[in-house]
Amino acid sequence: MKQFWNEKFECMSLKEIEAFQLQSLQKTIKWVYQKVSFYRKKFDEVGIKPDDIKSLEDLSKFPFTVKTDLRNNYPFGLCAVQMPDETVRIHASSGTTGKPITGPYTANDMEQWIECMARSLWSAGIRPNDIVQNSYGMGLFTGGLGFLQGADKIGCAVIPAGPGMTERQITLMKDFGTTVLFATPSYALTISEKAKKLGVDIKKLPLKIGAFGAEPWSNEMRQEIEQRLGIKAHEAYGLTELMGPGVAFSCSAYNLHINEDHILPEIIDPDTGEILPLGTQGELILTSLQREAMPMIRYRTKDITTLHREKCACGRTLITMDRVQRRSDDMKIVNGVNVFPSQIESLIMESNLIEPFYQIILRKKGYLDAMIVEVEAKNEIYEAGTEKIKNTENMLSKHIKDTIEIGAQVIIVPQNSLPRSEGKAKRLIDERS
Ligand code: DLL
Fold it and tell me: For 108-122, what is the mean pLDDT?
């Protein structure tokens, strides 16, 4: 069986990839300048024309696109093709914090997306003889159908389970002999916990691969999932604005490769907008290189990561990015200190005393902020009684204080009392305003 889904594009030399990117970029910039008045106006304002793109570095002369631009032009103001004649699909983000983000696709866009997804799944080791349980929501959300189409392309047997009805998920796994699970990492945990309650040992089932994504998860969480489910936990990264999942995917060495023949990444300092070199952490900026319906030029993802161009053991030459553990807008300021939920997750998980279910609550206490971290502990802690619970809480609070220099009150709550996620988990509640 072949090692790569598309060796030609996954293993190009740097010279080849850069030449391909430049050509595609010139075409894309010309396309949006002609077709989308929003981009034409923005480029004119800073006095640049499509012909000014002579090298990849010239992209830095172009302005960024931000989420508000998409919201202000909702639903199809940034569309570069005739609606609806030239489009075949419209997805949208959930829009919990405002108007949804729309993602229209032409027939070509769909083909490209499916190609990127097939690469991702193949790279995770998924093959035509796999039985795939797709527990992402198969609706407006790009996760469900994106993964479904990729698995279809490979020729897997797909069970379109969708999220929820967790007991049935386990029955399906057992009865159909599921070998691959698609879900958010938090839902994978919910499934594993339910299985335990039902007395089903998932490790004894044929399940061997998970392809997870759509929300930040720490490395500790990945290991926990691998161990609980007895699988290799792979990852996909993506966003509605840039087609959905398929922007980046993990390989056998767990590196996240970006499909850089489709998407051109840059890293900037989120405060100054300055472009940062490879190996430096900052905000990920993405430009689509082949999309027709709604191309994106220098889109500010708010996702914080680092790019690397080092030889990967898997043989792919596609650039890699560190896993996204936080967003620049996820950051909370607690009594003047910057805090990211992912830091807290790593700190409590590395203790090995805690179940991977937690919630961070920020509250006002007089003039100060209070951070409460509610966690569920491992069974043996509850069994050992109140004193052990108290000691564990104190130990974890101290560990957080010693590491990030901020006081947090860790509270071990009763087993099964924290909400369980079926999609993207909500782990931070800010009650301060
Ligand atoms: O979450 C697309 C997707 C579906 C990716 C399924 C992977 C798997 P949106 O709903 O538009 O699209 O949310 C995009 O989710 O900017 C990140 O902040 C976050 N995100 C997505 N994948 C990952 C990941 C889909 N692997 C936003 N790790 C992005 C961390 C992720 N965060």
Answer: 98
